[in-house]
Design brief:
It is built from eight helices and 13 strands. By secondary structure, the chain is of the alpha/beta class. The strands form two sheets. Strands 4-5-6-7-9-8-10 form a seven-stranded mixed β-sheet, covered by helices on one side. A six-stranded mixed β-sheet has the order 3-2-1-11-12-13, with helices on one face.
Length: about 300
Amino acid sequence: MKLKRRQFLFFGSLSAMGVGFLGFLSRQAGKNAYIAAAKTAVAATPKNNNLLLRFVSVADTGTGDQGQYAVARAMTRHHSQNPYDLVVLAGDNIYTNGEMEKISAVFERPYAPLLKQGVKFQAALGNHDIRTENGDLQLKYVGFNMKGRYYTFRRDNVQFFALDTNDNAVWENQLKWLEQELSLSNAPWKVVFGHHPVYASGVYGSNPAFIKTFTPLFQKYGVQLYINGHEHHYERTRSLNGTTYLICGGGAGTRPVGRSEWTEYSAEKLSFAAYEVYADRIEISGIGTDNRIFDKGIVPLKST
């Protein structure tokens, strides 16, 4: 849309005022005020009309307690304002031992408003899920939409790869499958998810074996995003050799988290992560039970 000269000057003056205002805040109130104002400015920016996909992720959900229901309500509210039809459920879907008799309390009831609107959950197995029959009953449960212990599916320009990251996984077969599927994929966006972290600053910390195993594959085949739980906090890394690592394990409870040299943002918060996929970037939002965005990040299609 072309702007008339008068409109152009008006919007230009608003932009200049905005920059000056942010600078004033920085001088007067310090870095925290500046960041808060910047986030407000980002939130007020008109949405790009080339949105390809919205989805959310959450993990360590299956307690059936108040924390899980609070996060589920926030997910439902976000859906009402920013409709999505996909949830990546990154493991520990049923506490404490993966008992399917709890499925109503820990899945069907808390997410009923989303399920009724056709939102599809794509799950991975966590360490608690395999305590009963090695998770086989969850694999068969239609609500989790698992095609196996590891599987892939595609939405628009995004291909997702779900992994079984548990200790008893058949790693040799799974890694061969993953490399083959990544090599065959022509999707511009590649998103891998599993339960356990690669990089983390929480109770368990990073996994050296996973760093050694996964990071070369992710770099070789251009995986831009890895999503996981297990650590009960929110943490987003900077791009590490082209891959951002996102922990969304505050789906029902929380544990303390620190920071590492590669941490972009971390928080001990009941929360979920929301994603908006565009042709050139993925915008990530960390959202708490107060429905507020506490973190904003961007994953570029290709890192420089």
